[in-house]
Each structure stands twice: as C-alpha cells, then as structure tokens.
Amino acid sequence: MPHSSQTTQPSLAISQGQPLEDDECLGVLTLPQLFLELTECYRDNPALLLEGTSSVPELWSYAKLRAEAMAVAQSLIALGINKGDRIGVLMPNTPQFIASVFGIALAGGVATMLSTFSTRDELAYLLKQSACSVLLFEPQVAKQDFCAALQEIAPEIKTGRLHSINLPFLRHVVSVDTLTTGAITPWQTFIDYGRATSQNDVFLRAKMTTPADPGGAIFFIGLNQQTQGYPQQPPRRLHSDVAYADPAGASQGRA
C-alpha cells in the first residue's frame, strides 16, 4: 500500500479577557490621556530644560508644557483638522517640538516627525509620502534652510495660496518663529487663531482617542538611503511595525 502522510496544521490559540480600558491597574492607555494626567499631577515640577542656546537655560514646568501643548491643539482644531489627520513636525529637539507632538495628539491628529537631516529632495519625498495636511517647522536648523527648501518643493507657497501640485494634501505651513513668507504662517498668528477654541473641545478629543488609534509616525533617511517610517501606537510602548519606502520608487514594503 502506498505510504500515506498527514499534514499537521498549527492550532489557533485564542485568548480572551476583559478589555484593556476596563483594567484599572493599567492606568491610561493613550498619549493624550497620559499627557493630561502627568502634567496635572506634576504641574510645578520641571519637565524640560534646554541648554546651550543662550546664557540662561530655558526651563519649562509641566504646567508650562501643558499650556503650550493645549495652545497647539486649540489652533489645530481651529484649522479644521480631523481625527487621524497627519501633522508634520520638522524641528530639532526643542521644548517647542515636545509641545507640538503632544498638542497634535491632544487634537486627535497623528504627529508625523520628519528628519531635520533631510536634503531638499529627501524632504520633498517625505512630505509627499506622509501626506501631511499641516506642517509645523523650524525655518533654519544648523545649515539647513527649510524655508527655501519648502518654496522650491512647493512654489505655490510664495504666492500666499497653498494648493500645491507636488503636495496636494498640504494646506497649512507654520513657522515656529516670526517668519512671514507667502503662505507661511508665523507661530504667534497660528496660536492666536486657536484662542476662540474651547479647551473643552481639546479634552473631548483626548477622551475619544483609543489604544487602537495611531499615535504618531517617524520618518527619517536610513543609512541605506531609504526613507523609513516607524508608525507608533498610543499605548506606552512602541509597536514593532516598520514601513520602508525607496525614494527612487524602486520598492516599497513592510517589515
């Protein structure tokens, strides 16, 4: 008789339990909720210290960080961003960078952090792939002139009306300083725009964020000249999902 063989199929293990949000021992599970909890608990404690930019170090308390992040969130809501919209952050490691990332989370957006080491062509690719609707950026980082780079990538910025062929999703560009060039909005004007937005609107959005919502994305240029994006999730640890994209368009995939 011919020899018969059997193929053993792997069994499927299914674990069930109470929802994470119902487990009181875990605490909050999203970035905006964690931020609000910690900044309320440690209001008067030092949160950020920036040295080296002036003779006097810049010190932010948790209360100051909360106020700055709330102002960013209110302004983004006033601009009309919706849950899940990607907001680009092109800044070095400064207190304003931290406030922007958490402000985006509070507003329900996805903080999309872009590498300040990017060349003009790399930045153009990052902005196109990330599909950001708003970009918060530092005009000058070391020798990088991002204001000039952005105007070369999207010449429509110079006209004061941003409807770019190259970046069709981008609708607002905000500079962290007083720069006013074409469609670029200076930081204080951006912040003033959100003063009519109630903080309760921010709290409602923060409350509606769930652990399944994307918390952020990091885009940078890898050593192999590939543009890489690391999606984050709101729980207190990063997931290992990694996206790779070839600037030359040769290959795209996920690992």
Short recap of the structure:
Helix content is 30%, strand content 20%.
What keywords describe this structure?
two-stranded antiparallel sheet; 7 helices; about 260 residues; nine-stranded mixed β-sheet; globular; alpha/beta; single chain
What can you see in these coordinates?
The strands form three sheets. The protein has a nine-stranded mixed β-sheet, sandwiched between helices. Strands 1-2 form a two-stranded antiparallel ribbon. A two-stranded antiparallel ribbon has the order 6-7. The longest helix has 18 residues, at 62-79. It is an alpha/beta fold. The termini are far apart. Helix 1 runs antiparallel to helix 2, helix 1 (31-41) packs across helix 3 and helix 4 crosses helix 5. It is built from seven helices and 13 strands. Helix 3 (95-106) links the parallel strand 3 and strand 4.
